[in-house]
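Note to self: keep these together.
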Amino acid sequence: MLASLRIRNFALVESLAWDIPAGFVAITGETGAGKSILIGGLNLLLGDRADKSAIRSGENECVIEAVAVLPAESSIHPLLAEAGIEPCEAGQLLLKRVISATGNGRQFVNGSPGTLALLRQIGDRLIDLHGPHDHQSLFSREAQTRLLDAFGGSEKALADYRAARAQWLGLEREQADSEATGQAREREIALLAHQTEEIESSALIPNEEETLVARQQAAANGQRLKELAAGAAQALSEAEDSAEGRLAEVGRMIRELARIDSSQNDLATRHAALAGEISDLGRSLVSYGDHLDADPRSLAEIETRLDVLQSLKRKYGATIAEVMAFGEEAAARLAELRGRAARGANLEAEIAAAKKRALAAGGKLSKLRAAAAPRLAGSVRKHLMDLGFLKGGFEIRLDAGEPGPEGLENVEFVFAPNPGEPAQPLRSIASSGEISRVMLALKTTLAAQDEVPVLVFDEIDANVGGEIAHSVGAKMREIGACRQVLCITHLPQVAAAAFSHFVVSKSVVGGRTISSLTPVAAEEREAEIARMLGSRGGGAALAHARELLGA
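Structure:
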């Protein structure tokens, strides 16, 4: 419900603060007192185009604010989250619009800057305005479809259909994407297959390049190294004047010296150690030379392998590790693309099956709607009779169409106010009085299902009187039991049926005309109803007013 409305410097209103009760609220007043200003303010708050001429003369800006109380299940909450707006604290939605005479206007939702588009979206979910200032969600086929489904209890069937349709369309999009990118995918598969084959056939080993470089350097100098090792070994032990031979002669001399002078026995020990070292060195040189590979073919093989590694590095990465990583990624991508190509062959069958499921789900939904449509139409016709359309026609058409997001048919509410006239869609009805009463009949029938919590009726009782006026008031009171209803009316029968009553009046203060809104206390309602009956206090009018209020 709307909990409060604040208007400042708008048209004849200098400052208005309205705490709005729940249920059915009547707003009355003399013609020209400014009742339409309330509707104009609400329209601006719900995103209508601003006219700067509406700013009160002599002021720079007008401000319109409202507080609405929302239930936890309101569809406005996810709308705010999607727009990045602060959530409602304690269920209170704060709306504000500022119209400036000198610059651009501003609008705020829960204290955060918002757009006019967001205000309109909130308005569509919060308030239905019926009358000269139309803001009627029921003109929309989508809204009509939602109401029919709510009345018939087919929301789950609609959700099942939408899920099946989404799967069907998703597969068709996948097929279209596959066909559009088929040639490019085949080219990519061919390239990846070549790359992975080239890398895999190379049988790369981590750190292989460093090992090959060391082997290359050794193989390139193999002959010279063998010569040096052999020469050194010969000089140590194999030549006639080898180091070992000379050292043996030195050993004999040292042993003779130690025999004569026993204090020099350590010289013999040191000689023996030196002889052992020279012998070991000679054997090491021989072994080194034996293991050297001086075969030119081995060097060629090493250089060929290094050329292969260099070629792979130029194509796929700066190091062998990067080349190996590239190969793994290419293999994974190749497997993915080949899987898609294989899946493409099965998509036709999957699409056909998904379409069949979607159409079957849509058929179940259509049956539920076909059963609910005449029941809903019959209930609306009954309420229309109470509202003066004794022979008016109201039907719900279900025209076959393409499988759309709302189902397999187009739902259209049609109305013929007079016998012999063709029924027309609600949006084509010209008379605001007629369409407003149709809306009242619909709202009465659908009060329990309609998601829009606030209804505003602006003089929908035009050209209505007598018993029909009583019916209008009774139906608004009926809707007011589960919705907030704000009704601007000139009919005493309607005002008398309201739970709460407010009067708009106009006065001159300081040479300026000011509109104001005041609540009508219980003891004052008889006088206001009598005024509406055309009397300023006559006994008959007061008696009639008491009768209406007691009805």
